[in-house]
Amino acid sequence: MSILIIDDSQESRLLLKSILKAAGYTDVLTAGSAHEAFKILNLDGETKAPTPIDLILMDIMMPEIDGIEACKRIKAREHLRDIPIIMITALTDVEILKTAFAAGAMDYIAKPPNKVELLARVRSALRLKHEMDARKAREQELLEVTRQLEEANQILLRLSSLDGLTGIANRRRFDEFLDVEWRRGLRESAPLSLIMLDIDFFKAYNDAYGHQAGDDCLKVVANTLSNTVNRPGDLVARYGGEEFAVILPRTHPEGAVTVAELLRAKVEALKIPHSRSRVSDVVTISLGVSTVVPRPGYSTAALIAAADQALYQAKQEGRNRVRVRYPAPFPDYTLPESGKITP
Hints:
By secondary structure, the protein is an alpha/beta fold. It has ten helices and ten strands. Helix 7 packs across helix 8 and helix 8 packs across helix 9. The N and C termini lie far apart (82 Å).
């Protein structure tokens, strides 16, 4: 434990140091003034690193800067605030002592010091410093553990929202996101579009090329969808099996159909061989689009059902195409011309 003695009297400094050394305190530093002490403590930032100090014994009466003022300055610094300060003084006036305690001193010893009393108070102060250091170390450990837990929870939260195979959003994230955007659309009377799509004749693809190739195909298609739908507010998710979904907030029917057709074309352009497909010699997708402005009394189920029906229609009409259908509870919507597009 390191002890700093601050006293303008060399005789007092030597006496205190000899008592402490004899008691086994080998790391004892001395300063003849507050300015010297400030340099040791790096109070003014003049040295690269302060000397670690566990206890300060300081005279009250010193030239230029007295012990009370020095105590105030030391305690004003965050990195020095926990160092106990014991005043060594010939002054026993109650008001002076009250001022010293108010400045941050924890105790005082009268001059000339009694050896037994000095060592008892030093031991008590160093024990207090040790306990304070241990408490701060525990607090830092707790803060670090808390930080690590929060970081781990964030990672787990992200992982729980991602599909393990493709790395895009999973069904759980899809449901959460759609619910949030439905409520936003309800508040803002904004359109909400949904694209449901799946890979044409994917079971036949698996049978022909194997499940590993099937997984690779799903990954490539998912990556293509994600790279194509790149607005920050949109979401691409794996809905289940070979089926995917795209949520497009604040998107009108024409915009949703344009995105769907772009996705269809991008997947076809991958030219992934598919010898068992009855619509093409490469992997293709079929897409169903639905758009609605959310209203009170209805839910996302109607939007999903309409997009599913549109997807079913696309499959019935030959696959590798886009079809549009609006939710049944919203009869005032009419099918735009873009909804009639074929590949």
